[in-house]
């Protein structure tokens, strides 16, 4: 009689827990819009907007799937060992398995294999993302400055613009970056002061913006839309304000926008300061 009461009192909280888990899961799933569900399918990544993003996206998804498979396997083993080898009698100690050489070799080889596979795919993705486009059609020279961005559109050779045009962002007005859809763009990144990092989340890519050490990457925007670019390096007091709007537009719209900047008199290139005179740390001759 007493035993049955104990059983019942254990079962009831168990049922309540199961019911509340089911209820919260239903609530969570029913609250999911299609966008949220799609974002889950990308393991939290935004919708890609460049030709390079799928390489990172596949690496990201693959790494999550591999981690989950390994995780479920290890959790299963842990659970199995806990139940299978639990203490059945007072004072009993399970058989200990120390200095088991084959097991220890296995413990070493398996993680090395896992890391090697991840390393292989990481290097492959890195090479694909960092590959220079053959003959980029557009070049944008970017300057990161405390605490905004300057964009120079190097369009002298573009017959429908024929000039270099710039836009300087400030803390009061975040700048707009216009990019033509489907055409390769080369970004050259310069810093006017400290380390920044140029990041467009929809490109699945960011690159350091360093004083005295120009960086560069190529990308072809693939999806028309407006996105938010950011600085991804904690660079000082107003780091969080280092935002910029990214407008991926048709080639005609792009040309029109750049011409509009030119008509406002924003022609010529804004150059980053030279760091060669500020000491050995930023000696451009040494840094190449
Ligand atoms: Cu910054």
UniProtKB/TrEMBL annotation:
Cross-referenced PANTHER family: CYTOCHROME C OXIDASE SUBUNIT 2, CYTOCHROME C OXIDASE, SUBUNIT II
Gene coding for it: coxB
Membrane topology reported for the UniProt record: Multi-pass membrane protein
E.C. number: 7.1.1.9
Protein name: Cytochrome c oxidase subunit 2
Subcellular location: Cell membrane; Membrane
GO molecular function: copper ion binding; cytochrome-c oxidase activity; oxidoreductase activity
Catalyzed reaction equations: 4 Fe(II)-[cytochrome c] + O2 + 8 H(+)(in) = 4 Fe(III)-[cytochrome c] + 2 H2O + 4 H(+)(out)
Transmembrane segments: 58-83, 104-123
Family classification: Belongs to the cytochrome c oxidase subunit 2 family.
UniProt KW tRNA-binding keyword: no
Domain of life: Bacteria
UniProt keyword annotation of Metal-binding present: yes
Domain Cytochrome oxidase subunit II copper A binding: 135-260
Region (Disordered): 266-288
One Gene Ontology cellular component annotation held by this UniProt entry: plasma membrane
Purpose: Subunits I and II form the functional core of the enzyme complex. Electrons originating in cytochrome c are transferred via heme a and Cu(A) to the binuclear center formed by heme a3 and Cu(B).
Domain Cytochrome oxidase subunit II transmembrane region profile: 37-133
